[in-house]
Amino acid sequence: MLAGALCALGVAADAPLLPNQFGPWQAEATAKTLQVRELGSGWAKWPNGERVLAEAGLSKIEQRAYSNGAEEITLRAFVLRDPSSAFEVYTFLLAPGMKDSGLGGDSAGGEHDARFLVGNIVVQAEISPKAKAEGLRELLTAVQAKADPTPLPPVKNYLPEHWRTFGSEKYALGPEGFRAAMSSLGQEASKGLTDAVGFQNGAEAMLASYRGEHGSGVLVLLDYPTPQLAEQHLHHLEQALPEALKRAGVTVERKASLLSLVFAATSAQHAQAIRDAVNYETQVTWNERGQKATDPPIMLVMYKIFLFTGLFLGVATGVGIAFGGFRVIIKRLFPGKVFDRPEDIEVLQLGLSGKKIDPTDMY
C-alpha cells in the first residue's frame, strides 16, 4: 500500500529520495526511513506537529547523513500528499528571524539549518557549526526530478510584501494547520474561529505578521471556491468572533471569494492599509479577442473575401452559360430528340376551346 502511494507521488518505493552525492557532500550511509515518533527532540519545538503532518497526508520521512571532510550535514525529506499539503508543512516549519536561503522560490533557514519546498517534498537540513551549506542547489535539482510539479495554491501570492515579517508566513488547508498557525503568530484567543472558517467546504487560509513604521498586525486571508461560500462563512465568523476582539476593532471583510481579518492591529488605519495592499483582483467580464500583431491586416482580409466571392460568382456564371449553350445546340441539331420531346411533355387543358393543344407550339 505504501509503495502504491509513493509511486502515485512520483517517488519509487525501492529507490532513495535523497541522492548518494550532491555538490561536495557524500552520503555516509544508506537512507533511513523514519516514523514521526522518531523525529527526536528537535521536532518538539514545533507544537502540534504530528497532527499537521497527518492532516497534510504524510507518506514518508527519509533521513540521510552526509560529510564533506570533517564537516557534516543531515537531511530529512518529508513526502506529502500534494504540493499544497507540502506548502502547509513548509510554512509550519517557518519562524520569524529566518532568512531566505536562496534555494528556489520557497526556502528559509538560519545559520546552521535550512528548509526548502520542492513540489510535494519538504527538505530540512541540519548543518554542523563549522560547515557551509555549499552544494544545496545541486540537491534541489536532484529532488526536483522526483517531486510533483503541480502549482502551489494561488492564495500564497495574495499576501502583500510590504511590511511583511519574513518567516511569519503560514498556510493552512485544514483545522490543525490553522490552529498551529494562529498559535505561532500569538493569536491563541482566536483559535476558536477554526470551526467557523469552513475547511470542510474547501477553504484555504494564508497568514502573516506585518510590522511597519507606524504599527503592526496579523493578516489572515481565507480563500473560498465561490463568493457564495465566502459570504456564508463571513456571517459565521462574525458570530464566532469573541467580544474582546470585536471591541479591539477586528472585522471580517469580503472581496469576491476572499475574506480578510487583521488581528492585533495597532490602529484601524494600519489594519486597513494592510488590507488595501492585498494582491487580489477579480475579473467579472469577458474580454473579446482582439487583433494581434501576427494577424493579417484587415485590408488583406477584405481583399481575399471579395476575390474568392468574385471567383465563385464567375465559375457559377460560366457553368450556367455552358449548360444553357449546350442545351440550345442539342435542340438545334436534334429537335425533339433529346430535350423537350413531345411524348414527355404533359399539359393540363381547361377545355375552354375545342382546339387541342400542341406541346410543340410552346417552344
Molecular structure report:
The chain has helices spanning 2-8, 49-55, 83-92, 136-144, 175-184, 194-197, 227-240, 243-247, 268-276, 298-333; strands at residues 21-22, 25-27, 32-34, 60-68, 71-79, 107-109, 113-118, 121-127, 170-172, 204-211, 216-223, 253-255, 258-263. The protein is an alpha+beta fold. The chain has 3 domains: 1-152, no CATH class; 154-283, no CATH class; 298-362. The strands form 2 sheets. Strands 1, 2, 3, 4, 5, 6, 7 and 8 form an 8-stranded antiparallel beta sheet that branches. It has a 5-stranded antiparallel beta sheet with strand order 9-10-11-13-12, with helices on both faces. α2 (49-55) packs antiparallel against α3. Residues 1-13 have low confidence and may be disordered.
